[in-house]
Specification:
Blueprint (H helix, E strand, L loop, with lengths): L4 H36 L4 H37 L1 H5 L14 H7 L11 E11 L2 E13 L7 E12 L7 E6 L5 H9 L5 E2 L11 E5 L9 H13 L3 E7 L2 E7 L15 H5 L5 H9 L3
Antiparallel strand pairs: 1-2, 2-3, 3-8, 4-6, 4-7, 5-6, 7-8
């Protein structure tokens, strides 16, 4: 749902009060350091060291934590006001990926991953809806060992969007940038999937550097409008794309892109800042899937 003005005003008001306390903490820290400097002129080294120890304790366990809480609160407010409005949700999962799991990655058959232990992890995530789509989006890390090695591993980090459509697309395609996964890993992974093969897709007019895998070379393919939107998305994002279309579901992974923005402790909260969508690729991804 679209956040109204009162929501933004209240959020900004609370954050400004917290920012004021953070600034006050910084001033206190400066005053304490000046006090320690003054003590040093008394040449009482034990007293000076004791005072310095107290200042360091306060810096690490009080002021730093205060700053971290403020930056987290700012990020949360931004996500709820920006992406929360887009997905019509007021829920934010800070650690659990909003329900995404290794099974999500396995079903998508999009990226290789080590099928043991905690190779797939989801973090900050949100779940909601867009038009008739059910959407879950979360940051992810996906680990896979290089073939024949138990010591060399690649950890693929980025953002994963899982979408459920209200109808069956009748398609089973994987479209991915050549740089999303190292070539040796990619070939081995898709070579082990039953029936999955690299498709000669010169006439698809795909963005440069993108490959197509599928189980039916002559099967139903995405529309020209979909491919055109995919080209726009690839040009827009600095990340590397991978798209899985399978039945009534779609998964889109963007390597090296993440859900939340990073803020500094001196960032001043404003309505414009909170409304800015921190992961702008998401809306473009949703418009892409709407074209299936």
């Amino acid at each position: 749902m679209k956040r109204n003005e009162s929501y933004l005003q209240n959020a900004v008001k609370e954050l400004k009060q917290e920012a004021k306390r953070v600034r006050l903490g910084a001033y206190v820290m400066i005053a304490l350091l000046v006090g320690v400097l003054a003590l040093s002129f008394l040449k009482n080294y034990m007293l000076t060291l004791g005072a310095l120890a107290v200042v360091l304790f306060l810096q690490i366990f009080v002021f730093k934590r205060q700053q971290k809480r403020y930056k987290n609160h700012l990020q949360q407010a931004n996500l709820l006001a920006g992406i929360g409005a887009l997905l019509r949700t007021e829920e934010l999962d800070e650690k659990g990926g909003a329900g995404l799991s290794a099974e999500t990655v396995r079903a998508a058959e999009l990226l290789p991953f080590h099928d043991k232990g905690n190779a797939v992890n989801f973090y900050l995530g949100m779940s909601g809806s867009y038009e008739k789509l059910k959407v879950t989006v979360a940051d992810a890390s996906i680990a896979e060992y290089f073939s024949g090695s138990k010591n060399r591993a690649m950890v693929n980090c980025g953002n994963w969007t899982h979408i459920e459509l209200p109808y069956d697309t009748g398609m089973n395609w994987r479209l991915l940038d050549t740089e999303t996964v190292p070539e040796a890993m990619r070939r081995e992974f898709f070579g082990q999937l039953p029936g999955m093969q690299k498709i000669a897709a010169e006439d698809w007019k795909l963005p440069e550097g993108m490959l197509v895998y599928g189980t039916e070379p002559e099967g139903k393919r995405p529309s020209d409008a979909f491919v055109a939107q995919l080209r726009k998305l690839k040009v827009y994002t600095p990340g590397k794309l991978a798209v899985s279309i399978h039945g009534n579901q779609a998964d889109v992974y963007v390597r090296n892109r993440f859900l939340g923005s990073r803020y500094r402790a001196n960032t001043e909260p404003t309505e414009e800042l909170l409304e800015k969508v921190s992961y702008p690729e998401l809306e473009k991804i949703l418009k892409l899937i709407m074209l299936l």
